[in-house]
Amino acid sequence: MVTFRPVLSEDLPLLAVWMARPHWREWWGEPGQELEKLREKIEGRDTTKPFIFQIDGRDAGYIQVWYVKDQQGSDTVAAYPWLALLPMDAVGVDLAIADAAELSRGYGTKVLQAFVGKLRRDGHERIVIDPDIANQRAVKAYRKAGFREIAGLKGRTGDNLLMELVNTKGVS
């Protein structure tokens, strides 16, 4: 069973260990900078909501939801101009599995599907994810979870592959 709990300040040492692992460093930024960004989220200086995901009660990774409308007027657009091309009502998701031994076992897909369910229950219909194009393991997991490339943005998003899951049947 997959569950989610908000990240607390007490979780920062655990996340520092995770962020220092090679499979995290490959796709995420420098751990010290990432921890500072996470601290801003925990303290409410950033609207992104961070969570630890648990699998069968065990802390197994990190997931966050960010709000496109809050990123469109920020300095983030300068680094990622494609943000301005996304619908304002969309939310974005990022995730990372804590232990490299658990990669390619279906956890990313399972966690993402559970988190999408949570986001839909919270009223979000347009959900995007933006893996690095070279991270084919993540791209494959996201496709299995139902995400598809945003055709109109292909070739316009740098190293990111913009993928979207649109709820066409209303909130489930």
Characteristics:
single chain, 172 residues, alpha+beta, 7-stranded mixed beta sheet, 7 helices, 33% helix, globular
Can you describe what's shown?
It contains seven helices and seven strands. The mean pLDDT is 91. It is 33% helix and 23% strand. A seven-stranded mixed sheet has the order 1-2-3-4-5-7-6. Helix 6 crosses helix 7. It is globular, with a radius of gyration of 15 Å. It starts with a strand and ends in a 6-residue tail after the last strand. Strand 4, helix 6 and strand 5 form a beta-alpha-beta unit. The longest helix is centred in the middle third of the chain and has 15 residues. It is of the alpha+beta class and 172 residues long.
